[in-house]
Amino acid sequence: MDSTSAYDRLKARFARLGHLGDAVGVLDWDLAAMMPEGGAEARAGQLATLRSISHDLLTLPEVGDWLDAAERDEAATLGDWDRANLRAMRREWRHAAALDSDLVEAHSHACSACEMVWRRARAEDDFAAVRGPLATVLDLTREIAVTKSQAFGCSPYDALLDAYEPEGSQAAIAAVFDDLAVDLPGILDDALAAQGPAPIPPNGPFPAARQRALAVRLMETAGFDFHRGRLDTSLHPFCGGVPDDVRITTRYDESDATGAIMGVLHETGHALYEQGLPADWRDQPVGRALGMSVHESQSLLMEMQACRSRAFLTYAAPIMADMLGDGGSGWDTETLYRLYTRVEPGLIRVDADEVTYPAHVILRFRLERALLSGDLTLGDLPGAWRDGMRDLLGVTVPDDRDGCLQDIHWYDGAIGYFPTYTLGAMTAAQLFQAAVQAVPSIPDDLARGDFGPLLGWLREHVHALGSSVTAAEMLTRATGKPLDAGVFKAHLRRRYVDRAV
Amino acid sequence: MDSTSAYDRLKARFARLGHLGDAVGVLDWDLAAMMPEGGAEARAGQLATLRSISHDLLTLPEVGDWLDAAERDEAATLGDWDRANLRAMRREWRHAAALDSDLVEAHSHACSACEMVWRRARAEDDFAAVRGPLATVLDLTREIAVTKSQAFGCSPYDALLDAYEPEGSQAAIAAVFDDLAVDLPGILDDALAAQGPAPIPPNGPFPAARQRALAVRLMETAGFDFHRGRLDTSLHPFCGGVPDDVRITTRYDESDATGAIMGVLHETGHALYEQGLPADWRDQPVGRALGMSVHESQSLLMEMQACRSRAFLTYAAPIMADMLGDGGSGWDTETLYRLYTRVEPGLIRVDADEVTYPAHVILRFRLERALLSGDLTLGDLPGAWRDGMRDLLGVTVPDDRDGCLQDIHWYDGAIGYFPTYTLGAMTAAQLFQAAVQAVPSIPDDLARGDFGPLLGWLREHVHALGSSVTAAEMLTRATGKPLDAGVFKAHLRRRYVDRAV
């Protein structure tokens, strides 16, 4: 009789699944950063086949049997990491096994079709054109949510959320967001009053090659390991690849040097998390990052907490002046700090500053729950969007292009994703505060371009944990308390009202 | 009862296998052209898993059953292309199903291990260091050859050859090569006497960016579709990717502008073949290229027949002077023609000219058959190499680094591959002759930079056929006769002795 344990069989199967997922990661990066247009159909075939094989390998009946046997007979003898690994396996399996493959495929096709229509509908400001395809996506997403909710014993929205934010709960998020929503308008008013007139930015043009050289230098300063990663260009910046081969992308605007640099530092935060994941568990679920909010916390900690600080800009300003400035003005620390901390209510989420960003997310969180439950119809979505933007940010939405058509998420079937952005911002503030409390030299270190102490703390308290604990456990262990909106609010006041950091 | 035919099931399975193979193609390209060193282990895992899944999907018992049923019950009702597709499926299946997966895996590991030792052994000129690992590779390759030969009913060498050159036969190759070997020394002597003193090449340096711009321009001239492909850099130039997304690579020597350009045009020949394969059969075996000798014929036709000709160089010389020359000398057609047709017996195959190249291949073909049969021991290999180089080319081999250690092939388990280079050169000469007979304007067209008529002929007579016929059938239909060494010999005399083309 074969004596291989059920858990060992699971490890072998999940290693294969990990390799398949990693291959998809590289092919997705290539699609965005390298692939010529003509390759689209072949690539779609490659990705669909890899995803379908992964789904099959994960949902074969033997996997459920192995999970049952390992949990029943073997879990007690496993170490902490292996037990956490087994839990992560069960989570992945639950999400895949809850749905039959016809539903998965129908949803996938509906999302692809809707996304294509959405691209034109957004360009032409024509919400009516995409309403039908979006209704189909929403119906199928609701079916997925309801099916999973019955299997998991939770609400439909929480069942969707769980795919992005393991153990997340809409009730907990709503409580934190409601708290934020109360205080944000006051912080925004105070920030607008405190920031003074708009600074005069440096004069371009800024050649892309020189922006890239500066970006590479600052990535290295921040600790990015180019032996295990690359920087390339793509239309929409992102962080992809695999932990020992992290691919980040950006785009360069030759008339504005500030955007790409901070975008790269944002993606560098994601990349440092990946590069710092536990090497001993590369192929296994427990070796991977926690959910999306923790991933976003790492990029926002790097960008918002560390790199937009006056401390870091003290270090970066002369380097930026040297590599991009050509002797022009606007490269002093104070001008850069004022540019990088400018607050202005606007229509577009991805262009929003740190103070107004949560309002964009809170609006989407409220609307997507109402859409899912049926309390809001698609016909009423554009109006609800306008009302929400007026109430939360005091801005008037002139059209749907810059309103409910601006983000790809819903049109691509991603409901339950938006809250992770603001959960990430709050987590970032709380982790950075704890890091500075533990290592008070961190602001001075950043002012000297030394990221070592900050990165060392993050490696120990976040990156090296992989998924061996939950996001909530990680945060509580690292900061002494669960997620607390107060820390984020205090950060906003210190930076944007006191203009102290 | 499910009425899906066995052949339709095979088509669906082979489409999946095609997608997996294409994914491997992109990941292999990325490994060589993009991947940072640190990504090697993760990539090895991705590729091993994809290959292992492919092997499993191809050798599941159902595939053999479907093949039997389709051949028995359905073949008569299929059209020509579908019948050819079914034959190609059977061929792929035969190669995979002949071997048990333990042998495949042992061979794969032995090759990886041997290749690693070989890299150092070559650098240190230490054949003894790699003799043990090479013996293991050879033993396992022999086991594979014998096992397949029993399944296929052919000689062990032919069983290996068949993986690179479907329907190839060592007896037929030996006859052609022996014929060549008789006449080559005389052609070489006459060529050396005819070529005159070495020309003075243009003076560098030649910045890589300008070489690249020239390469892109000439690729476009030759018909490469950048909507469906890319040009990048890698240590060892190659052509990879997939038909609608062909990735070719080169490397730039800033002190010599001639090498990279002709290397790119060589790879462009491979790429044009891929881009010209029948679009209706993308995912199926019949839609893929014929064996390696036909593939090599397309690169050598482009490089040797078309682009090293005086006609093409008449067109290219002023463009090269303009894009690389900086007003210097050596950019006239005649100097470039003399540089690009220079003959000199040497030690290294990959640096060899068109006249001496076949001798390198004939030596390897003779030695690898003797190694496989056991007539030659590894201990005697270095000496046999020296003897062969002296007899065939009159050169003295000073060490093993530039002798039997120079090529990766045997150390990586590729026995039966070498003859395809010279079969390709002969096929190229024969196809080009037929193209010019059919379209006499081709040399004048090339002298105007118009590749349309040549490419049109190749598209119709080679590329668009995919694998719907055998290589021998393609050649006979396109040129009116089977492979004929006489055409290649006549080409060598016309170019290198008469110096007429």
From TrEMBL, chains A, B:
EC code(s) of this entry: 3.4.17.19
Q: Quote the record's binding site residues for Zn(2+).
A: H266, H270, E296
Does the keyword section mention Hydrolase? yes
The GO terms describing molecular function are: metal ion binding; metallocarboxypeptidase activity
Top EC category: hydrolase
Q: Which reaction does it catalyse?
A: Release of a C-terminal amino acid with broad specificity, except for -Pro
Quote the record's cofactor note. Binds 1 zinc ion per subunit.
Superkingdom of source:
Bacteria
Active-site positions on this chain: E267
Sorted alphabetically, the keyword list is: Carboxypeptidase, Hydrolase, Metal-binding, Metalloprotease, Protease, Zinc
Gene Ontology BP annotations:
proteolysis
State the needed cofactors, names only: Zn(2+)
CDD domains under this entry? M32_Taq
One Pfam family of this chain: Peptidase_M32
Q: Keyword Zinc on this protein? A: yes
What does it do? Answer: Broad specificity carboxypetidase that releases amino acids sequentially from the C-terminus, including neutral, aromatic, polar and basic residues.
By sequence similarity, the record places it as follows: Belongs to the peptidase M32 family.
Name-wise, this protein is Metal-dependent carboxypeptidase
Name the source organism: Rhodospira trueperi
